[in-house]
Amino acid sequence: MWQASTEIVFCGMDELTLTYADRDLILAGLFELSITYVEDDEKRQNCKALVKRLGGDPDAMFYGARPPEMRP
What we know:
With 72 residues, the chain is an alpha+beta fold.
């Protein structure tokens, strides 16, 4: 089965290709981590910075991760 993908480029690293499913799983995981880090503002901000780099929305539930039926 063909899956759509997006390329994520991190400064100083080789290109990393993720499927939208991979990206959404990472976004949802970062959302859960940020809940775990309630007492540590720096770690929560680091999660949100990575969310932005992945194209997610730091103000959305699960940082904008979409269910499978809504992915391209």
